[in-house]
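We emphasize that the prediction below concerns an isolated chain of 239 residues; any contacts that depend on oligomerization or on bound cofactors are therefore not represented. The input was used exactly as deposited, without trimming of termini.
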Amino acid sequence: MAVVSIEERRAEVWDRLRGVIDPELDESVVDLGFVTQVDVEAGEKVRVGFRLPTYWCAANFSYLMADDMRHAIGALPWVGEVEVTIGEHMYAEKINEGLKRGLSFAEAFGDEADDDLGALRRTFLVKAFQRRQSALLDHLVAAGFSAAQLVELSLKELSAADLDDTGSALRRRYFERRGVVGEADAGRAFVDTEGDRLQAETLGVYMRAMRRVGVNAEFNGALCRGLLRERFGLDAPEA
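Result of the prediction step, given as a token string:
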């Protein structure tokens, strides 16, 4: 049996963390610069440290992200224990203790918790669906698809469509969130957040509304990166 080095296992953990998405910004926590430390101890215990742009980022949002990291790493077959800790946060002690004990957000925060994380997670997933759908629809319109074609397009037809590299990447990302919405018209490629089919005559209005979701997310992403750079004295990324 081949011996796996600690560095190889650290690389595996980093790969898992790249798949953990900031739920509000719909971007990788690694790409955003949130993860500060990854250590593998005794071959099976993993310690991860992370930070957020501000000291007062919402507790439920912070807990949700930390819990996603913990579950992503814990899915690796060789991992026996995962410790995820948040630093420099107003609720760091309570969040870290809750994670260490394997508590839900409601259990960790008690009366301070408005609710558990299910509704919050759902809200962010729907926004990600809208943002990814908007990007793909814009690309398809630019590629020559008409409104009538798009509203009639099935998932099977969209899967088989001959798209360029950008379109293929946008399609893949959209498919990752397509199942978030209801299944009222499960075979249809493009539906609204209730799972109902879109209409050709109102598609333009619908797409403009979806673009606003994307613009808001892009603004928030730029703001978060700027706050993170200023707070921790990081260099701005090269263009």
